[in-house]
Design brief:
Chain A has 250 residues and is α/β, with parallel strands linked by helices. Chain A has ten helices and nine strands. Classes of the chains: A alpha/beta (250), B alpha/beta (177), C alpha/beta (353).
């Protein structure tokens, strides 16, 4: 049996994430994929503003810290200068789907040859639990204390569904990390998203439905159950766009 | 020190900027200091257009012309707007095909040239601008009438070289009027 | 002498940038600077470079940030309202100590303002614009030739001091054509060991970042940065003096205003008024030295600007208010005539402010 080791692409430092937070799992999946594809030396990562703001300390590849929401634009600048490097962003829901929506949509429309890891936990974690663009109808947060009222502040945004309407992007998929099976599938999707970039196929986004026990006010166990019972019905797992697969099926 | 400040004004589409460009390039080929300043923005989309060209044997100070030595007026609004700004002793060139108003000032030289009609008759209807420039070169001492072709070659791309002949002819038409 | 070519100011910036080794341009359309983007769109694909029209000014400055972090020479250009949108990125670029060139072909403000020439972004360019303690090298061309030469200089200085160089031009200089030559293009090359290139698994990872959660660390970062800014102040101030030898009055003006002011100075000299001109070429660092020296010689200063009086504050600081400073200005896209400036000089001579 293989020995369980820290991936090379993950730095040997304590993570700052809350107990029970799946960011650690998702970081590890990204790092394992980088190890397996042998791209650590070529990778340049873009950290967001949000809980993963200090991701630049955790990945051992070259890293840059972007302004809130601007990671895809920063990644575009890097990739256009260094097309032979592997450029990825790691963003949360507020970053990617609220303040950075224009950058997200347009980098997808350009089929920018980058990999986007989008962690959707339906809340602003770093600032202490405010309503996110992906918070569910009725969800109680610091800024929707009576539950998200869709008549007042609108509906949550389904990023994969929306982006998959664009001609541009290569690969749009949604995964989850609430159980072992889903974690394994998430890794496969992330690996494909990086492989697509290596193959020059273009914009690949993996939405990872995640949990935020701290700001949801739940135990880690309960939070994972809530992902299954409440999040996934609204944000179904699946491949929303895969241009290469669609072409091959024709 | 010799400086000539030339203001060309008319409608967008009359070739105001092009005429200015020719004069600027002409000045440059004669080793003068030159500046060319267009009006820009929405008013250029079919509205009024003007262009300031300064030719000098000294470095050009402000490229903005407040008191032109030479005014080329290609429509009535431009003549009315700028005729009082012309320096005493200056020259006004009026396209009399399009403007039937006369300049009342007596301290300036005024030339009425039916430029649009002349251009039309000669078969290059869109070159009233260059007809006027031909006359300006004759009556002012800003630049010489030599090497016109070489000047056009500097800014008309090779694939549009056929335009050079008719532009030269338009200059001659104005010069000889 | 290299051949003189007739070019628009905006085009001169674009051509000079290419000659300076810039192969990446990211921008968003806005009047009156669109010729820069158009020139880049035409030229870049032919020389293996990248022109990319971004979805917004915000995206374009962040593309510049990413590109700059890779060590490449990169630029963007815009006009006043667009520069406000870029302010966020300018702050991040400053906080991350990466070099970039940003062009502002100014138009009248505030708000959507107008599209005619203005200098009303002087404060924004020299005092901040974005958040936090930072500076930009601000270069103010007064001719098409300087649009080119200061663009090349701007790239060199940005690389040398790891900061943004801003070309602060205006609609007039951007739109006008003058003959220029490119013979003096001197490209300086600097090592960039901090650049994001991929570790190749041979070195510790490079991190380009402006986040420092520990206040003592952030303070040290800022102090280090200001040490660098001090060197810029000591070494890089540029200005032009015109008829200052025997001047009793001193006009201070930059960019297009200085061109108008020169005409007025020449006219005033004909009237026997001993007046000269100091033209700041760098607005930051502001040329304190010649102004301080002039303050001991002249009787009064006249600040000529295309705004409500912004540079005048730096003139007063540089001269330590030793002599009166009056303002001669138009705003909103209007430009003072040489006669208006001449009148201001006459007033200063009469001691009337």
């Amino acid at each position: 049996m293989a020995e369980f080791k820290k991936p090379k692409s993950l730095a040997d430092v304590p993570l700052h994430y809350c107990p029970g937070c799946p960011h650690g799992i998702i970081h590890r999946l990204v790092a394992e994929v980088m190890d397996e594809l042998g791209i650590e030396g070529k990778a340049i990562g873009v950290a967001p503003v949000g809980c993963a703001v200090m991701a630049y300390d955790y990945f051992t590849c070259d890293m840059i810290e972007a302004a809130h929401g601007r990671a895809p634009a920063v990644a575009t600048g890097i990739k256009r200068c260094r097309p032979d490097n592997i450029v990825f962003t790691y963003q949360g829901d507020g970053d990617l789907a609220s303040i950075g929506m224009a950058e997200t949509v347009h980098s997808a429309a350009r089929n920018e040859n980058i990999t986007v890891i989008f962690v959707n936990n339906a809340i602003y974690g770093m600032t202490g639990g405010q309503m996110a663009p992906t918070s569910l109808p009725g969800q109680v947060t610091q800024t929707s204390p009576y539950g998200r009222d869709v008549k007042h502040c609108g509906w949550p945004i389904k990023v994969c569904e929306m982006l998959s309407t664009l001609e541009g992007p290569e690969y749009i998929t949604r995964v989850a990390v609430n159980n072992v099976k889903n974690v394994n599938n998430a890794k496969k999707a992330i690996k494909k998203a990086f492989q697509n970039q290596i193959d020059g196929k273009g914009f690949s986004l993996v939405e990872v439905v995640s949990a935020c026990p701290t700001n949801w006010g739940m135990t880690p166990q309960k939070a994972l159950e809530w992902v299954e019972s409440d999040m996934l019905p609204y944000y179904p797992i699946g491949v929303y766009k895969d241009r290469t697969a669609a072409k091959e099926a024709e | 020190m010799k400086t000539t400040q030339i203001l060309i004004a008319g409608f967008g589409g009359q070739g105001v900027l092009f005429a200015g460009k020719f004069l600027a390039y002409k000045g440059m080929t004669e080793d003068l200091q030159v500046s060319w300043l267009p009006s820009y923005g929405p008013e250029m989309r079919g509205g009024t257009a003007n262009c300031s060209v300064i030719l000098s044997d000294m470095p050009v100070g402000s490229p903005i012309i407040t008191q032109p030595d030479v005014l080329i007026a290609m429509n009535l609004p431009s003549l009315l707007k700028y005729m009082d700004t012309v320096a005493p002793g200056g020259q006004i060139f009026v396209d009399s095909s399009l403007i039937d108003t006369k300049v009342t000032r007596t301290d300036v030289q005024v030339f009425y040239i039916p430029a649009t009609q002349l251009a039309k008759d000669a078969g290059f209807a869109t070159l009233a601008n260059m007809v006027l420039v031909g006359k300006v070169i004759k009556e002012s001492s800003a630049v010489s009438f030599e090497n016109n072709r070489q000047t056009f070659e500097k800014f008309i791309p090779a694939k549009k070289a056929n335009l050079i002949d008719i532009n030269c002819q338009a200059l001659i038409t104005g010069y000889d009027y | 002498m290299a051949e003189r070519v007739l070019m628009k100011g905006n085009e001169a910036i674009a051509e000079a940038a290419i000659r300076a080794g810039c192969r990446h341009y990211f921008g968003y359309p806005i009047t009156p600077q669109t010729e820069i983007a158009a020139y880049m769109a035409k030229k870049m694909p032919k020389i293996g470079g990248v022109f990319l029209q971004a979805e917004s000014e915000i995206a374009s400055i962040n593309m510049v940030y990413g590109a700059a972090a890779t060590g490449m020479r990169v630029m963007t250009s815009s006009s006043s309202p667009g520069i406000s949108l870029k302010a966020e990125g300018l702050s991040y670029i400053a906080g991350s100590d990466v070099p970039a060139l940003v062009v502002n072909v100014q138009r009248g403000g505030p708000g959507l303002g107008g599209i005619q020439p203005s200098q009303s972004d002087y404060f924004q360019a020299t005092k901040g614009g974005g958040h936090g303690d930072y500076r930009m090298i601000v270069l103010a061309p007064a001719s098409v030739q300087e649009m080119a030469s200061l663009t090349i200089k701007g790239f060199n200085l940005a690389d040398k001091y790891l900061m943004t160089s801003m070309i602060l031009a205006d609609g007039t200089i951007g739109q006008m054509m003058e003959p220029i030559s490119f013979e003096d293009a001197e490209i300086e090359v600097y090592e960039k060991p901090w650049a994001l290139t991929g570790t190749n698994c041979e070195r510790k990872h490079n991190v380009v970042n402006s986040l420092y959660l520990k206040p003592d660390e952030l303070e040290i970062k800022n102090l280090e940065r200001y040490k660098r800014y001090e060197l810029v102040e000591q070494n890089e101030a540029m200005w032009e003096e015109y008829m200052m030898e025997d001047a009793e009055y001193c006009v201070v003006a930059f960019g297009i205003a200085s061109r108008v002011a020169k005409n007025a100075v020449a006219a005033a000299r004909k009237e026997g008024i001993k007046v000269g001109l100091i033209r700041p070429i760098t607005l930051w660092p502001f040329p304190v030295k010649p102004l301080a020296a002039a303050a001991d010689k002249v009787k009064a200063f006249i600040s000529v600007e295309l705004n409500m009086g912004q540079m005048i504050e730096d003139v007063r600081l540089a001269t330590q208010c030793k002599k009166p400073v009056s303002l001669c200005s138009r705003c909103g896209g209007m430009i003072p005539s040489p006669d208006e400036v001449l009148e201001a000089i006459r007033k200063a001579q009469k001691g009337a402010f």
